[in-house]
Amino acid sequence: MPMVRNTKQRQAVLEVLRGARTHPDAAWIHGEVRRALPNISLGTVYRTLDALARDGVIMTIESAGQATRYDYKHDGHAHHHAVCRGCGAIFDIDAALIAPPPAPSLPVGFQVMDVRLEYHGICPACASQKH
Amino acid sequence: MPMVRNTKQRQAVLEVLRGARTHPDAAWIHGEVRRALPNISLGTVYRTLDALARDGVIMTIESAGQATRYDYKHDGHAHHHAVCRGCGAIFDIDAALIAPPPAPSLPVGFQVMDVRLEYHGICPACASQKH
DNA sequence: ATAGCTGCAAAACGTTTGCACTAGT
DNA sequence: ACTAGTGCAAACGTTTTGCAGCTAT
């Protein structure tokens, strides 16, 4: 198995993600990390985010037709998301308010790494500007 | 409000989607629809899928780094998905086996159009070829 | 008649990758 | 020293879009 190195790029990306109050995409993260490491490349940001997601440190949120958003898993405090179909805004929902999903009939041998519950719809802001 | 036309392109795309036993992407759908309408363009397929998704007739499944998959909502027979992180394969899960999600603390005024529950992980095939 | 819809092709977009080099272990 | 990680830039695959012509209403 591969050894994982603790580079400043990885630290910086994680730091930005941990401090983010939103659910940023790779480009935004790149811009923020640049303030600490001006020469970091977007490619490295993607590679780092990929690794962090595979390690389960962060999670990804894919919205149709929009850039993938990334979400730091704060101290195992699980939460789900409400995704606006109009503007792509993402709202956090405390998982504690939702009953834990029961074990369903998954394919035999399927190893679950992540359960995600998403409410898709229209946020108030987008609903009001509709005609 | 915009009028929706019942073109043969739209009919054909819907027909293919209804008969699909898998969760195809736009390119596959395009190939299939071509058998009925050889001149239909990929752009039209995308525009049609977009409209159908907005109407709630079909749903989209976004996997990280892979093409968006489309899923016809058969007669309101709701189901959820298990998505393989390795190969992108999607397995259906009967929603009847899962407790109905309780009303959570959504943003005030948020109109829910779709609730999706996804189990992300590794399918048996991908797990066996790992070392 | 009049918009909506289409085909085409080009472009935009997010993301990945090959390479030579750097740096963590 | 060894090799994972990096910066750069080019390439990739998916999706969108401008436009002129077509077609359902």
UniProtKB/TrEMBL annotation, chains A, B:
Binding site for Zn(2+): 84, 87, 123, 126
GO biological process: negative regulation of DNA-templated transcription; regulation of secondary metabolite biosynthetic process
Top-level division of the source organism's lineage: Bacteria
GO molecular function: DNA-binding transcription factor activity; transcription cis-regulatory region binding; zinc ion binding
Cofactor stoichiometry and binding remark: Binds 1 zinc ion per subunit.
Keyword set, alphabetical order: DNA-binding, Metal-binding, Repressor, Transcription, Transcription regulation, Zinc
Needed cofactors: Zn(2+)
The family this protein is said to belong to: Belongs to the Fur family.
PANTHER family: HYDROGEN PEROXIDE SENSITIVE REPRESSOR, ZINC UPTAKE REGULATION PROTEIN
Protein's name according to its UniProt entry: Ferric uptake regulator, Fur family
Species of provenance: Deinococcus maricopensis (strain DSM 21211 / LMG 22137 / NRRL B-23946 / LB-34)
Lineage: Bacteria, Thermotogati, Deinococcota, Deinococci, Deinococcales
